[in-house]
Amino acid sequence: MTNKFRLPSIPGTTPKNIRFPNDIIDQVNGVIQGTNISFSKFVIEATRVALESLKEGDTADVK
């Protein structure tokens, strides 16, 4: 079986400006330091996890 080279499908994006508390920025920067993960990639993945958690009915902390 031959694997064919395929370019990954990259979803469309829209720039959004949001404000983060400085302590959150510091914590994220500390976690991603020394990796090839950008701040944006981290926030996108964290948002996906939060959204998936909400789909599973974990809304105890949502106000």
Written description of the protein model:
By secondary structure, this protein is mainly α. It is 44% helix and 0% strand. The chain has two helices and no strands. It has helices at 22-32, 39-55. The chain is extended and about 50 Å long.
What is the subunit organization of this protein? single chain
- Please summarize the sheet with the most strands: none
Terminal residue distance: 52 Å
Helical coverage, percent range? 40-55%
The whole-angstrom Rg is 16 Å
- Overall average residue pLDDT: 89
Low-confidence stretches: none
Total strand segments: 0
In sequence order, what are the helices and strands, one letter per element? HH
Q: What class, by secondary structure content? A: mainly alpha
What's the overall geometry? extended
User: How big a fraction of the residues is strand?
Assistant: under 5%
H/I helix tally: 2
SSE topology:
Layout: H1 22-32, H2 39-55
